[in-house]
Amino acid sequence: MMNNALESAVDVRGLTVRRGKTEVFAGLDVTIPRGQITGLLGPSGCGKTTLMRSIVGVQKVAAGTVTVLGEPAGSTPLRRRVAYDTQAASVYGDLTVRQNLRYFARVLGAPRADVDRVIGQVGLDAHRDQQVDSLSGGQENRVSLAVAMLGSPELIVLDEPTVGLDPVLRAELWTLFRALADAGATMIVSSHVMDEALRCDRLLLMRSGRIIADTTPDGLLAETGASDPDAAFLTLIERDQR
After folding, report:
1. What is the CA radius of gyration of the chain?
2. Could you give the CA distance from residue 192 to residue 43 in angstroms, rounded to a whole number?
3. Cα gap 221→228, rounded to integer Å
4. Domain shared by 161 and 234, yes or no
5. Are residues 111 and 18 in the same domain?
6. pTM (2 decimals)?
7. Do 62 and 88 lie in a common domain?
8. Where is the signal peptide (predicted)?
């Protein structure tokens, strides 16, 4: 793993997180490179969201350090450099798509021109003047994603952004994620849909609060001898249980 903070977007060392009497992480170590799409994959409840919350600095931690873009996670210098899109849409239902984006652009200090740019990027041009409450669940999630893209953040953390979306829209969003990474952004995208693993540059596969594989899509298939990501992950789980 890399030790140079200038080469990595995220450096996690000895992370310990407890929820009540349950220990979610016990000394977790992981480094995430800059300028790539890192897929955080695994079943529901494995710790993906807790790790993402730790990276953006909104998770209470018992021990360890999380360094993001050379700064402590959640610190003031990161407020405009890091974006986080949660599983639950975090926009105002009584405002239109455009009104939501204008409001958050002012809060973030993002250029006004960003509003139309991100609306177009997430495919909501036809709904820009529609009230969010009248949108479908998938469309509402796309409004939240657009908010996360305001201001061209260096690190974009997306917690299951494609959940509930049809295959065509999922493919369109992954094309967008690739374009953002190619333009220099670091993307961390969580999912429990294993076929999305093939769209990432780097894979972190999690199970029960541990990272059981740190690899690439090609490496995952080659290491396990599996023909698809689902079979590969099942192979890794079987090995982990031995």
Report:
1. 18
2. 5
3. 7
4. yes
5. no
6. 0.89
7. no
8. none
Task: Please give the residue range of the domain that contains residue 114.
Answer: 84-152
Q: Are 205 and 211 in contact (CB under 8 A)?
A: yes
Q: Is 176 domain-assigned?
A: no
Task: Note down pLDDT in tens along the chain; length 242 residues.
Answer: 344 455 799 999 999 999 988 999 999 999 999 999 999 998 888 999 999 999 999 999 999 999 999 999 999 999 889 999 987 778 999 999 999 999 999 998 899 999 999 999 888 999 999 999 999 887 888 899 899 999 989 999 999 988 877 888 888 889 989 999 999 999 999 988 888 889 999 999 999 999 999 999 999 999 899 888 889 888 988 888 76
pLDDT of residue 1: 39
Does residue 117 belong to any structural domain of this protein? yes
The answer to whether the beta carbons of residues 41 and 203 sit under 8 Å apart is yes
CATH number of the domain within which 210 lies:
3.40.50.300
* Cα separations in angstroms, 190 against 14, 86, 161, 200, 230: 21, 10, 8, 11, 15
Q: Are residues 15 and 125 in the same domain?
A: no
Exposed, middle or buried, 1 (CB in 10 Å: 0-12/13-18/19+)?
Answer: exposed
Please state, in angstroms and rounded to a whole number, the distance separating the CA atoms of residues 205 and 223. Answer: 13
How far is residue 187's CA from residue 39's CA, in Å, rounded to a whole number? Answer: 8
Residue 181 lies in a domain: no
Give dist(CA 111, CA 152) in Å, integer. Answer: 10
